Amino acid sequence: MKLSLIVPIYNEEKNIARLYHTITKTMELNQYDYELIMVNDGSRDHSLPLIENLSFKDTRVKYISFSRNFGKEAAMLAGLEAAAGDAAVILDADLQHPPELIPQLVNAYHAGFNQVVARRNRRGEPLFRRLPTTFFYALINNAVDVKLTDGEGDFRLLSRPVIDAILSLDEYNRFSKGIYDWVGFNKKTIEFDNVARENGSSAFSFFKLIDYAIDGILSYNNKPLRVCFYFGAFTLSVCLAYILVTLIQIIQSGIDEPGYFTIISAILFLGGVQLFSLGIIGEYIGKIYYETKRRPHYLIQHANIEEKDAES
Ligand code: UDP
Ligand code: MG
Fold first, then answer.
1. How far is C-alpha 30 from the geometric centre of its chain's CA atoms?
2. How far is ligand 2, taken at its centre, from the CA of residue 282, in Å?
3. Which of 30, 31, 10, 5 minimizes the C-alpha distance to 20?
4. Which residues form the Glycosyltransferase 2-like domain (predicted)?
């Protein structure tokens, strides 16, 4: 069995050497046949020369280098497209996904599981990071049909059938967490303790996480539009009932003059509902706009690995 390890890399010069050593040690200890695919996602530091160096010294190291920063989703996609293994493991470069866990993932694969997820518990994570994520999962699990679990990220082993299934989805707006759940297949979860990032800082700021949450909610289905529809229908019937009641009152006892409060609240409320709905519709149109442009997910500047699918 051949294993493809995929590592997206964006400004990780301080982590690459240690990552390489930990991976090599673990893999050699277990005598795995493997390739290490490093995807340089437009790093602005010295990550690329370090990767190139490793690939000169070690033929198991392959790399793909993008022409600019295309984001982690694109980097993971490029890695999966290039992977030649019977299974792939995606892991972060900052050692927050301990390579020592890979044998456990592989064992579960041998036991017949197609997706083996390493789930981290958030013990020891700062509150300002934990709060938005908790909110994110609460929101997303209520807003869409796909179920996401906190702590289950991209650190996972995917068997060849799962890789092929994921690659068959060629949408432009990729949201991996949802895609893993959507493709299905039998899945096993392994837990590990959260590890703090040692060098450098997280590329995902608070606002990036919010953007990510919105993308996540909108990338599955049209449930938010459905919510707008029901909400609109509800307000419309309430307004109609109100109009009817007032009309009857007017017929019975003449015109009821002081109506300032009701008028202003109706205007403001309806205006708000309309703007909100319009915003959601706009988001979907934005997504359609990007999908119809059919642009590639990434552009490769250079690589020492053959592209299996030049088109993506
Ligand atoms: N990453 C990437 N492109 C980006 C941002 C991040 O390839 O635009 C990589 C990064 O090098 C790391 C992984 O994605 O290997 C996770 O990034 P990070 O540690 O910043 O995220 P966090 O652990 O905070 O979720
Ligand atoms: Mg990290």
1. 31
2. 32
3. 5
4. 4-166
% of the chain exceeding 90 in pLDDT: 31
Ligand 1 touching residue 93 (CB < 6 A):
yes
Nearest to 37 by CA among 86, 68, 87, 78: 78
Tell me, in angstroms, the distance from the centre of ligand 2 to residue 91's CA. 10
Mutating to test ligand 1, I would choose from 19, 37, 41, 68 the residue with most ligand atoms within 8 A of its C-beta, which is: 41
C-beta of residue 182 within 8 angstroms of C-beta of residue 148: no
Cβ of 8 closer than 6 Å to ligand 1, yes or no, is: yes
Q: What is the pLDDT of residues 101-119, one digit of tens each?
A: 999 999 999 999 999 998 8
Give 128: exposed, middle or buried? Use CB within 10 Å, 0-12, 13-18, 19+: exposed
Record the pTM.
0.74
CA of residue 133 to ligand 1 center, whole Å: 16
